[in-house]
Amino acid sequence: MSGHSKWSTIKRKKGANDAKRGKMFTKLIKEITIAAEQGGSDPETNPRLRSAIQTAKGMNMPKDNIQRAINKANKDSSSFEEVTFEGYLAHGIAVFIECLTDNNNRTVSSVRAIFTKRGGNLGTHGSLSFLFDRKGIITVPKGDLDPEEFELEIIDAGVEEIELNDDWFLITTPMEDFNNVQKKLEEMGLNTESASLQRIPNDTKELPIEDAVQIMKTIEEFEDDDDVQNVFHNLEVTEEVEKALDQG
User: What's the pLDDT score for residue 245?
Assistant: First the structure.
C-alpha cells in the first residue's frame, strides 16, 4: 500500500469535524473498555490498552473520559464482542471491517444492508485475509526532531518504514515489533498522535475519480455505524480523489 494512501486516511481523520470527532471518541471509549477488560487496567502491562490511550490522547480526549472507560471495565463486563466482516464492494474493492458490538444480530444486519445497498458482496470469514497484512501504524509529531537522527535512533526497535508527511512521521512496524517501537518512543520521551494495529493491503487498486468517491462514501457509511470500529480497504486514494471528497 502506498504511503500516500495510508497517510490520506490519517489526514482525513485528523481533519474530522466535530460530529465525526464525537463518533471517534465513542469508538475509542469502547476500545479502551474492552482492552482493559481483556488485558487489565494497567497500560504498562497491557499493550492494547496503551495503544488505545495514546490514540485517545492524540485526539485530545479528556483524561477523565479515558479513566471512566477504564473504570467501566473494572466495575462490570460490558459484554462487547469483537466481530469482523470481509467482502467486496463495487469494482472489486476489498474491505475488511472490525466491529465491537453488544448485539451481534444488529451488527450483522447493518453491515449486510450496506453491502447489499451498494452492490457489494459479503464474504465468508477469512476469505480476504490473504489480501491484508497486520502491521503497526504509529504517527509522531515532527516537532524539532531531526529526521535522519530520529530514524537512526528508532530503526533498531523494529521499524519497517518511516515516512515524513508535512509535520508528522508515519511509522510502519511488523505486528510482532509494534510494542517494542512504542516502548522505544516512550523512552525517547516522544508523544504519539496515534498507535494502532491496522490491516494494510498487499496491493491497492486505482479507480476513476467518480467511482473512487462512491467507494469512499460507502466506506464512510460503514464507519458511521456505531458498532464499526475500523474499515480497511485496498482502494488507492489519490490526491485527486482526496480533493473530490473534500469538495463534497
Answer: 84
CA-nearest of 114, 133, 127 to 220 is: 114
HSE-CB for 59 with a 13 A CA cutoff: 29
Residues whose CB is less than 8 angstroms from the CB of residue 121 and which lie 6 or more positions away in sequence, other chains included: 87, 88, 115
Q: Which domains occur in the chain, in start order? A: 3-75 (1.10.10.200)
Q: In 118-141, which positions are buried (b, 16+ CB within 10 angstroms) versus exposed (e)? A: bebebbeeeebeebbeebbbbbbe
Asked if 228 contacts 222 with a C-beta cutoff of 8 angstroms, the reply is yes
Cα–Cα distance list, 140 to 14, 87, 147, 158 (Å): 13, 32, 12, 16
pLDDT in tens, 169-189: 999 999 999 989 998 998 999
Q: Can you say whether the dihedral through the CA atoms of 58, 61, 67, 73 is positive or negative?
A: negative
The predicted-structure confidence for 80-133, as pLDDT tens digits, reads as follows: 889 999 999 999 999 999 999 989 999 999 999 999 999 999 999 989 989 999
**Across all residues in the chain, what is the average pLDDT?**
87
The pLDDT of residue 1: 33
Dump the DSSP string for 43-100. Answer: TTT-HHHHHHHHHHHHTT--HHHHHHHHHHHHHS----EEEEEEEE-GGG-EEEEEEE
What residue type is 208 in one-letter code?
P
Residue 71 reports pLDDT greater than 70: yes
Segment holding 130, helix H or strand E: none
Phi-psi region of 143 (alpha: psi -120 to 50; beta: other; left: phi over 0): left
